[in-house]
Each structure stands twice: as C-alpha cells, then as structure tokens.
Amino acid sequence: MKVGFATLGCRVNQYETEAMAEKFIKQNYNIVKFEDFADVYVINTCTVTNMGDKKSRQMIHRAKRRNPNAIIAVVGCYSQIKPEEISKIDGVDIVLGTRNKGDIISSVNKVLTYNNKVVEVKGVLKNKVFEDLKIEEYQDRIRAFLKIQDGCNRFCSYCLIPFARGGVCSRSPQNVIDEVKRLANNGFKEIVLSGIHIASYGVDLDGNWDLLKMLEILDTVEGIERIRIGSIDPQFFSNGVVHRISSLKKLCHHFHLSLQSGCDETLRRMNRKYTTLEYSSIVNDLRKHMRDVSITTDVIVGFPGETEEEFNKTYNFLKRIKLSKMHIFKYSQREGTKAANMDNQIDGKIKDIRSKRLIKLNDINEEEFISRFKGKSLDVLYEQKLNNTEDEYEGYTSNYIKVISKSSINLQGRIISTEILRSNSDHANGIV
Ligand code: SF4
Q1: What secondary structure does DSSP assign to 318-384, as a single string?
Q2: Which residues, judged by CB distance below 6 Å to any ligand atom, belong to the binding site of ligand 1?
Q3: Residue nearest (by alpha carbon) to ligand 1 atom 4
Q4: Where along the chain do its domains lie?
Q5: 361 CA → ligand 1 middle, Å
Q6: What are the pLDDT digits (tens) for 297-349?
C-alpha cells in the first residue's frame, strides 16, 4: 500500500505529518509523493487564513483526481473547525481533528474493513492533554523539529488557532530532555523546538517549568550543537531573559518575534499584549547582547479599522527597526473570531497596496542584513547538496542566513566555518 501526504501551514503540522508518516511505515506502507498514485492520501490542513481552507480543499480534489478509489483522510486545524463541511466533500473518507492525528492508522483500517466514513474530532477547549505524537526515526539526520507544546491561551482577536488547537498543553519536561538526548545519540546537530505558542511552555505543568529553564537544561546536552526556537511571543524576553539566554552556548541567534503591527492602536484591537515601545526595547536588548542576532517577524496588513495613518505608523516603525526578514500577510476575515465582526473591514485592493509596500521594504532590509556579513566567516551547518551540476551545498548559519557554497568534498551534515563572499536577495554565497 502507498500513502502520500500534503502538509499545509506551520512547522507543527510538518512535525505531525512526519509522525503520522512513521506510523504508516511501521504498517509496511510505502511513502510516495503527493503527486503520485497512492492508496491513501493524508491532507494535514491549516485554517489560519481563508487561503489555508481553499488550498486544503484543492488538495482534496487533486487527491481524488489522482486516484478516485483512494482513501482520503483530512486532518488538522480545518478539520477541527469545520468537520461537517469537510466530510461532505466528494471523496473524503476520514476527518480527524487536531488531537486525533494519532488515530490515523486505526481510522484507515476502519474504512478498509467497514467501508464507512470516519469522523473523529475531540473537543479541544477543555482537553489539556498533550497528544504525544512521537517521531522515532527522522528522515534526515541533520536538523530535527521537536514539538514541545500545543495550543494557545492568548485569543488574539483575528486568530482561530485557540479554537482549532485548544489551550496550552506542554510535553513533559523529562520526555523533551530524553528525546533531545536520543537525537544527539543518533547524530543530530540541530534541534528546532516548535509549538503553537512556545513562550507558554510549562504554564500547565507542576514544578515551575518554563521555556527558559528548558533551554538552560538542553544547552548542556552533549552532542547537540545548535538549539533553535521557532516563532516566539515578544513577551518571553521580558524580565532579564535576554541577559540569561545570551550566555547559552547552543541557542541560535535567530528569533522570530511576531509583531503583527507597528501601531499601538492596531495592536490593541488585535488583543496583542505588548506595545511597540516594549517590542523595540526587546529588539535593542537582543542586539546589544548578541551582535549578530537576526530578528524576523510576521506582519498583518489591512486589519479592520487600519487607517492610512495607522498603516504609516507600522511602515515607519518597521523602517526604523530594520528587521532582517518580514513575512507579510493580508488580514483574512475568519468566521468565529472577534475581528471578523469589527467595523471598517479593509478593501482587498488597499491590502494589496500595503502588502506590496512592506514587501519592498523587506527586500531592502533583508539584503542589507545579509551584506553586513560580507567578508566575515560564519559557521554554516550544511544540510543538503543542491540538485545541480555545480557541486553546491546549502546550509544555514546560527542567525539563519541561507548560504550556498561550492565544494568538491561532501559538506552535508557538517558545521564548517565559511567566508561570506556575496549577498543575494535571500541568501549568501560562501567559500569554505
Ligand atoms: S498568540 Fe495569538 S496569533 Fe499566535 S496562536 Fe495564539 S491566538 Fe493565534
């Protein structure tokens, strides 16, 4: 039997797809590309934007076209929010919510045996148990994503995630530590800690656990050379945290600090819990303690009520603080959120104009950041040989600059000091 996966959305979804794929391998399935013929297709969906829903539906239709007799399983955030809508789509056999992904094999077996539709969606708002979807055998042996947390208690006014993923559930600390040791023993060099809101790690656990304490312990695990954290709430860095993390040897100097808006009025409507002044003081503090730090962010344009003046505040704020990369999103009205019912929804054309202005600003800032390192040597963890005739290898620095270097010797899986020769819009060329 063959199974193909399509994954939309965040790193947590990518992790969970890998964990589900492993369950299929254990049942002797062959993993094939989603574009290929398969007996089972699993679509791990995202519902953060309307576009996420649309793409998820497109994937369902594509799977059905490729093999009209395949079992089609739709899992994840979109399934959690709209199980009935999905189960009515032609060809869908299985619908599993965000905390039911571990049931994927038994669900496929039920369809094979009884030829019935399976819809299993646990309520997430009261469910505080971390679904321990483990990965025993990672596909590559260089960088491993490790999900340490699920859910979010923040309820930003535009976001459906707390409804799709529920409240904060943390993976048990001993389980995280054992897993990182196991990965180190298996030769992994870099661990990426991921979750939906990892700054909240430990709030649901006994024993005063938090992300900082976890990072300090993981920093001592022998064999692991880099620990990277995914997107993180700026508030994690208040109260002297910057000073403490700056002494960690393995923590990568790259932080994805979600900003969303550079205007305080907009931030308040978004129900974000910081001001632009607090945000910029965290940025300054990080830059003071880690001179090479890369700070990246997400920005939403066209949030309800965002006037030209408010957008200009965001633009000028971002021009001033010059982050090394920004992901620009056009606000997407999500039914069931507070923002969806706010007055003054913004026209799509205005969102387009604002998005283009910020993308242009990002291109300038990104190139400027990379070019700061021209002529300097940085440690690069090379992850793969590129599929071209040039003997080129691609890897990342601790501060997440993509570096491509030519080499006649195999660089894959090695951390090598590399001189940065040239900067391009989204990567640098280096020489080892
Ligand atoms: S912090 Fe806000 S945007 Fe992020 S997952 Fe939680 S509610 Fe959504």
Answers
A1: HHHH--SEEEEEE----TTSTGGG-S-PPPHHHHHHHHHHHHHHHHHHHHHHHHTTTT-EEEEEEEE
A2: 152, 154-156, 159, 161-162, 196-197
A3: 197
A4: 2-120, 125-252, 377-431
A5: 25
A6: 999 999 999 999 999 999 999 999 999 999 999 999 999 999 999 999 999 99
**Residue 211 DSSP code:** H
**Lookup result for tokens 């590309």:** 33
Over 70: is that where the pLDDT of 370 sits?
Answer: yes
- First and final CA of the chain: distance in angstroms? 44
* Residue with CA nearest ligand 1 atom 2: 156
Q: How many residues are given for the chain?
A: 432
Q: Which ligand 1 atom is at minimum distance from the Cα of 231?
A: 4
* DSSP secondary structure letter of residue 403: E
Question: How far is 221 from 247, CA to CA, in rounded Å?
Answer: 15
pLDDT tens per residue, range 53-70? 999 999 999 999 999 999
CA 145 to chain centre: 10
| Measured CA distances, 354 to 201, 210, 325, 347, 381 (Å) | 34, 37, 17, 11, 36
Q: Which of 46, 48, 49, 196 to mutate to test the pocket of ligand 1 (most atoms within 8 A of CB)?
A: 196
State which fold the 125-252 domain adopts: Transcription Regulator spoIIAA (3.30.750)
- Residue 273 CB contacts under 8 Å (≥ 6 apart), including other chains: 154, 235
Percent of the chain scored above 90 by pLDDT? 85
| CATH fold label, 377-431 | OB fold (Dihydrolipoamide Acetyltransferase, E2P) (2.40.50)
Residues 262-298 have pLDDT tens digits of 999 999 999 999 999 999 999 999 999 999 999 999 9
Q: Which atom of ligand 1 is nearest to the CA of 153?
A: 6
Q: What percent of the chain has pLDDT over 70?
A: 99
Q: Which atom of ligand 1 is nearest to the CA of 260?
A: 3
Q: Are 31 and 5 in contact (CB under 8 A)?
A: yes
The answer to whether 102 and 68 have CB atoms below 8 angstroms apart is no
Structure tokens at 120: 């299993």
Q: Is residue 224 within 8 Å of residue 415, measured between CB atoms?
A: no
State whether residue 184 is helix, strand or coil: helix
Crossing angle of helices 308-321 and 348-371, rounded to 10°: 10
Measured CA to CA, the distance from residue 149 to residue 131 in angstroms comes to: 9
DSSP-assigned beta bridge partners for residue 256: 231, 296
Q: Which fold has domain 2-120?
A: Rossmann fold (3.40.50)
